[in-house]
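Hey, sorry to bother you again with one of my protein questions. There's a protein on my desk that I can't quite get my head around. No rush at all, and the record is pasted right below.
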Amino acid sequence: MQVSSLNEVKIYSLSAGRSLPEWLSDRKKRALQKKNVDVRRRIELIQDFDMPTVSTKIKVSRDGQYIMAAGTYKPRIRCFDTYQLSLKFERCLDSEVVTFDILSDDYSKIVFLQCDRYVEFHSQHGRYYRTRIPKFGRDFSYHYPSCDLYFVGASSEVYRLNLEQGRYLNSLQTDASENNVCDINPIHCLFATGTAEGKVECWDPRTRNRVGVLDCALSSVTADTEIDGLPSISALKFNGALNMAVGTSTGQVLLYDLRSSNPLIVKDHQYGLPIKSIQFQDPLDLIISADSRIIKMWNKDTGKIFTSMEPEHDINDVCLYPNSGMLLTANEDPKMNIYYIPVLGPAPRWCSFLDNLTEELEENPESTVYDDYKFVTRKDLENLGLAHLIGSPLLRAYMHGFFMDIRLYHKVKMMVNPFAYEEYRKEKIRQKIEETRAQRVQLKKLPKVNKELALKLIEEEEEQQPTRKKKQKNLPNILTDDRFKVMFENPDFQVDEKSEEFRLLNPLVSKISEKRKKKLKILEQQEAQEQEEEEEPEGKPSDAESSETSDDEKGWVEEVRKQRKLLRQEEKVKRQERFKEDQQTTLKPQFFEIKTGEEFRSFKDSVKKQKLMKKTLGDRLKLEEKLGTLSVSDTTVGSKQMTFKLKKSGQQKKQQEAEKQHHLERKNIRRSASHLKSKRGRRGPF
């Protein structure tokens, strides 16, 4: 039996420990119990409470006498009698069980939904009847008033099988492509089905009409959750007449009040695994939700974690034994786990001895300290030269290191480091010297920046320590706080005492420090008077105190006025100095160099440009039309066409004028040449 504690809640795992094979003789069993501590401490609450390979579903009958579990391989069902603490019967089936339900108070009426679309009805003697549904089923619920079985699965329809008439009735047509889970409220018999699209559809069995739809996929997405795909509904459970819990395939549990479409609380398992089971624990207002990795118990009003359990193997189903603190789980392991949590409730009647056992364990707690073993890492083994022992019986792997015998560790350490005792002795001497140094008067180490401010903070803290009450929390100190560390290291944060702000605030700061000193003097005088004259009254009259406060206020106001006058005088002096400097300086003409390719124009052009930029686009277009650089015309389609002429810069104009002159010169040369030829032709040869 293992004991774990989380949030001060004790959890007893009754199925922990080694199980003995059946073919062992009593003599060998007694010998193993003497040798092996685990075998001796194990508790076999129910004999052979396991499956050959894997257990998939587990349920308890309504009378609490029988525990039924389905598993593989081969597909089978086992019934355990709690009054006899042993196996009642075992039945093998043709295919694996998807889910099952116990219709009667005992095991006399059971319905199995199998993975090959078959539905089997079993009675006390065995299989009573077998039928088939049109699509592969995933879950079903039994409606007691009408004796109807509602089957949901890989179809948009909900199939209804009436057990009184022995025939199928008209199915319910949902808006979903597939339905994963379903449940019927035990009080008002409202039927709810969870779809693959993340919605819950509620139907009234009396009128066979849909009465409401909840979009759980949208409500499960919050700011903190990270979801890869669309969440589908994987678990559904009613509690009372108004509450309903919904589990999604992305690991969220939503608690609803049927009168509202918004969830009361959303709990995330933080693993991203589908929720397998949801149970309600009404005495403590808890919800027990489980995915394949963890079982969480949390308060349904606040969402605060009560406790949690993480078994070694993946979880397939969880069942809470009614009116007790026992929890049963079906796992991906032959052994089915049994947990007992005394806080949830007492032990069942058939194992009431568990209460006495847990009380004795709480009275005599056992220490879990490994006194005979030393934990070493791989680096420690390399330093000791014992790396070659990895994999041998002398080292036992545990987490990121190994356990080894403490005697072997001491021997090897003495051989590797024979001067270890001397080093230990020197370390002890050094610790003693440091302890004596701590008793001396320690000087205050002030920072390099803002020394006065640091000294002031230290003095204020020392003054507050004797007056502070014991129940009051220690306020954070600015000197030790990392957020204000830069203020005493960076010289950019140095307080400028010559600034105007500091000079105006300085009288107030100085007065506050003076008041503090006066109060200290008054307290010292009062203590001296108490020692000398015990009969005389303490303190001063109220008139004296009021006169002192008024004098302090007057003095502070006068000092502030003086500082303001000094600041005004300094400003006047600075203005006069600037005026003299301006008179002495002679203004010289400044020359500006014009960039190449640009022409100097008057300063009026820049003024015109600024005025143009202030105008609206319509006004600018009108000006451009007047100047001829813009033309607006209507097209045949009905739209407008605008053409612009770019303004030429001065350099472009110069180039165009030079090209024109060049063309004119060439024309003149050609004309003169043709004129000479014509004259020679007229004169004839010599």
